[in-house]
Amino acid sequence: MDITLLAIESSCDDTSAAIIRNGIILSNSIANQTVHEEYGGVVPELASRSHQQNIVPVVDKAIKDAGISKQDITAIAYTRGPGLLGSLLVGASFAKGFALAHQCKMIEVNHLHAHVLANFIQTPTYTPPLPTFPFLCLLVSGGHTQIIIAKDFTDMEIIGTTIDDAAGEAFDKCAKIIGLPYPGGPHVDAHAQKGNDAAFSFNKPKIADLNYSFSGLKTSVLYFLRDQVKKNEHFIEENIDDICASLQTTIIDILVDKLHKAVTQTGITEIVIGGGVAANSGLRNRITEEGKKHNWTTHIPKRKYTTDNAAMIAVAGYYKYLNHEFANQSTTPRARYALSDYFKKTN
User: Fold this and answer.
1) Fold match between 4-126+305-346 and 135-301?
2) Those residues with Cβ within 8 angstroms of residue 285's Cβ, 6 or more apart along the chain or in another chain
């Protein structure tokens, strides 16, 4: 019997739905929200309202694109957290209503778990080399920076995390200091590709074990630019490519240094990356280079699967379905939802 899942992702400002059948993604529909650009960041109330407008047409498109009917759906997977509570409520409420109406199972998915499993996304026309267990995942997003040991599809352990800000937040906030539009990360990446990454030096924190910190880097960039602008009011616009290249390389150096330490401590050389920052060209190139240099086996998802999307929720939901890990109508969204709590609950 075919296992066909509808998956919903609504953790932040992208409304997405996907269909997975027997582990193969048949469709992945996404509605983006541009309303936040003028505010320089996601406005939670506007995000939840947009999800309410988008979720029905997005789901309808995913089902049609997959060439199935609603009656074919075996279960519905949805993002329970972490994320914006109002946004999560829209996705969770839709999932509950759909499950009741169609008498199908529900599966709650942790957004971070899904980012890790984005490396297992396959479509009828796309079958990448898949990671083998155990592997190390460098998970880098706007809200999280972690090193994870994945022992199985539903058994993972965090061995390093940020003690303050995430790498993605550092990209976006430094971009704002520089004067770049929101979201800042992609703009930094675009300028960095034209700049000299050795032009300027920024602070690299010394944090114990495998943990990260990025608050000091933001302060370093702020003070550096403040001092330079005092000398030359046009400093940023005249040096923006070099500033972005130096900033991007500093962040990547911090990330990769800890990853090297994790490889040494664990002996695991199967490496994957995930999360929104995994779309960054500098990080993607660096991970590939380090893999060749140190004989790591590296896996990098397609860019469209690194940002928020329902295909990754579908993959995580599919493997939880195989483990018979189902949610019920009393399951509530969680704005804060640590992977340690999630796996403790599901294992």
Assistant:
1) yes
2) none
Per-residue model confidence as pLDDT tens digits over 249-297: 999 999 999 999 999 999 999 999 999 999 999 999 999 999 999 999 9
Domain boundaries, the chain: 4-126+305-346, 135-301
Is the entire prediction scored with pTM above 0.85?
A: yes
Phi, psi of 11 (to 5 degrees): -75, -25
Identify the CA nearest to 9 among candidates 56, 78, 74, 59.
78
- Top CATH class of 135-301 equals alpha beta
Phi, psi of 147 (to 5 degrees): -110, 125
Do you find a cis peptide bond into 134, omega within 30 degrees of 0? yes
Which residue intervals of 125-271 are DSSP H helices?
Answer: 167-178, 184-192, 215-231, 235-266
Q: Where does 4-126+305-346 sit in CATH, by number? A: 3.30.420.40
Rounded distance between C-alpha atoms, residue 38 and residue 202, angstroms: 29
Give 303's DSSP letter.
Answer: G
Q: At CB < 8 A and 24+ separation, what contacts does 185-191 make?
A: 185/142, 185/276, 185/277, 185/279, 185/280, 186/279, 187/244, 188/244, 188/247, 188/248, 189/244, 189/248, 189/280, 189/281, 189/282, 191/240, 191/241, 191/243, 191/244, 191/245
Angle of CA points 266, 272, 273, to nearest 5°:
115
H-state helical runs in the chain? 44-66, 85-102, 111-117, 167-178, 184-192, 215-231, 235-266, 281-294, 310-322, 339-346
* Calpha distance 52→128 (Å, rounded): 34
**pLDDT tens readout for residues 214-228:** 999 999 999 999 999
Give the distance, in angstroms, between the CA of residue 24 and the centroid of all CA atoms in the same chain: 20
